[in-house]
């Protein structure tokens, strides 16, 4: 346990915490340490010493979440702990104190536990368990590929062998934390899965993005190789090697962007992603806090609680919503509800979920590399593809004709390795007739494709 006063100055620490941090006496500790945050390792998903507000305030403001921290002790060992903060008042007078407790995480071996000062650890093995998946529709796949079922089965067996063979390569990239090469290997396996109409494998690997951390790749690969084991069992393919993944060696986390790198003016998508990354939150968690803030603002506006609205400015500032915080700072002075309404409008715009089917320039570059055709031919194919996609929104067709067209376009998207559009067209096919939401997503996807093509 560690005790802070009302000014968040460390004033006491118990022996157990001292020992955990590697100190033999309080005197030795106080000579070197003014805040326990000095021991925090800066890494996404963990509490650290934020630049614009105190970490204690952050925990108290976001008390619905279980907070964790990586502590690098005096000896260099890195420990994962759960962090709790309670507000206390003194027995004699109502002075405010903050009681901080660390609980060592003994349930999970994380990448940082037992890391030495050289920042190296033993790679941890992660065994893969076979899970049940929906049976393959071999007849449908064979018909779609215009091949005999026996040939399709041979191709699938070859794919299983390829996936097993690639495992050594994948583990090499995992151990060295080589995310770029890891992504490229996964991208190759995803392309073959798309060609063979192995939809579960394709959908699992489509979740892999270039900016993910190693742990997210591991979770995706665990599910993918579970599916490979399922296929091996289905087609009685013998696998003569152990199917396991390895955690990467621990490397010091890169410095997260400082608050000055986050634009003061909220820009849809970019600012949210940057803010979430700086706070160590997933985008979903950030969106949850955003919804909570909007609800609180609306509730207090309804009752004209201007003083309470003013207090919410610190909540907004903690989420890097600088413009909104500025409005809320002013509202208690001039009691202008229009300022609050403007704040709500801005936040509602930010709250909108980004379209997951947007096609970026990088997506097109990857597609061009994988299809291995000339750039001019590639552009011409994409232009024709865009024209055909627009017919789904602009031309009235019978159900039979519409679904046939959508399936043809999905096949083209698969050949082009444009996984976002494959998933979108799959949604359109499964949810005929298209509602306004799907129609808008298609329109936005086409717009992003046109824009990205111009930049290619």
* SS-derived structural category: alpha+beta
Largest sheet: 5 strands, antiparallel
What is the helix content? 55-70%
Radius of gyration: 27 Å
Outline:
flat
Distance between the termini: 56 Å
Number of helices: 18
Mean pLDDT metric: 78
What pattern of helices and strands is seen along the backbone? EEHHHEEEEHHHHHEHHHHHHHHHH
Number of domains: 4
* Low-pLDDT sequence parts: 106-122, 250-270
> Roughly what fraction of the amino acids lie in strands?
5-15%
Number of strands: 7
Identify the strand order in the major beta sheet.
2-1-5-4-3
Q: What does this protein structure show overall?
A:
The chain is α+β, with helices and mostly antiparallel strands and 456 residues long. It is built from 18 helices and seven strands. The strands form two sheets. A five-stranded antiparallel beta sheet has the order 2-1-5-4-3. It has a two-stranded antiparallel ribbon with strand order 6-7. Helices cover 55% and strands 9% of the residues. The chain is flat. The model is unreliable at 106-122 and 250-270 (pLDDT under 50). Helix 12 (322-334) runs antiparallel to helix 13.
């Amino acid at each position: 346990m560690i005790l802070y006063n009302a000014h968040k100055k460390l004033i006491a620490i118990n022996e157990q915490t001292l020992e955990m941090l590697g100190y033999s006496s309080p005197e030795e500790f106080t000579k070197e340490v003014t805040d326990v945050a000095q021991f925090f390792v800066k890494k996404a998903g963990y509490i650290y010493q934020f630049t614009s507000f105190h970490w204690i305030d952050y925990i108290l403001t976001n008390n619905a979440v279980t907070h964790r921290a990586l502590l690098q002790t005096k000896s260099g060992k890195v420990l994962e702990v759960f962090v709790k903060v309670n507000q206390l008042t003194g027995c004699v007078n109502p002075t405010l104190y903050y009681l901080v407790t660390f609980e060592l995480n003994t349930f999970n071996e994380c990448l940082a536990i037992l890391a030495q000062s050289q920042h190296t650890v033993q790679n941890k093995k992660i065994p893969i368990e076979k899970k049940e998946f929906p049976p393959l529709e071999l007849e449908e796949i064979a018909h779609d590929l215009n091949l005999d079922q026996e040939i399709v089965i041979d191709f699938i067996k070859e794919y299983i062998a390829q996936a097993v063979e690639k495992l050594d390569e994948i583990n090499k990239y995992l151990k060295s934390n080589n995310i770029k090469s890891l992504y490229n290997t996964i991208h190759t396996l995803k392309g073959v899965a798309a060609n063979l109409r192995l939809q579960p494998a394709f959908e699992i690997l489509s979740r892999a993005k270039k900016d993910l951390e190693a742990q997210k790749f591991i979770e995706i690969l665990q599910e993918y190789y579970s599916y490979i084991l399922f296929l091996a069992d289905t087609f009685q393919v013998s696998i003569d090697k152990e199917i396991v993944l390895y955690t990467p060696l621990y490397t010091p986390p890169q410095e997260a962007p400082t608050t000055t790198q986050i634009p003061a003016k909220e820009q849809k998508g970019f600012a949210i992603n940057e803010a979430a990354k700086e706070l160590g939150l997933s985008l979903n968690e950030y969106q949850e806090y955003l919804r909570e803030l909007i609800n609180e603002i609306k509730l207090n506006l309804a009752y004209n609680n201007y003083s309470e609205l003013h207090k919410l400015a610190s909540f907004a500032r903690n989420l890097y919503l600088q413009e909104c915080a500025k409005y809320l700072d002013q509202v208690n002075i001039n009691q202008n509800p229009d300022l609050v309404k403007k704040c709500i409008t801005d936040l509602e715009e930010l709250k909108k979920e980004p379209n997951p089917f947007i096609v970026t320039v990088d997506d097109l570059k990857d597609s061009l590399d994988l299809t291995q055709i000339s750039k001019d031919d590639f552009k011409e194919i994409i232009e024709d593809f865009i024209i055909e996609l627009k017919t789904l929104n602009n031309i009235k067709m019978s159900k039979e004709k519409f679904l046939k067209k959508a399936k043809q376009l999905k096949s083209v998207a698969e050949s082009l390795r444009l996984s976002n559009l494959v998933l979108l067209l799959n949604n359109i096919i499964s949810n005929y007739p298209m509602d306004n939401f799907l129609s808008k997503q298609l329109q936005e996807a086409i717009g992003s494709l046109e824009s990205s093509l111009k930049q290619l």
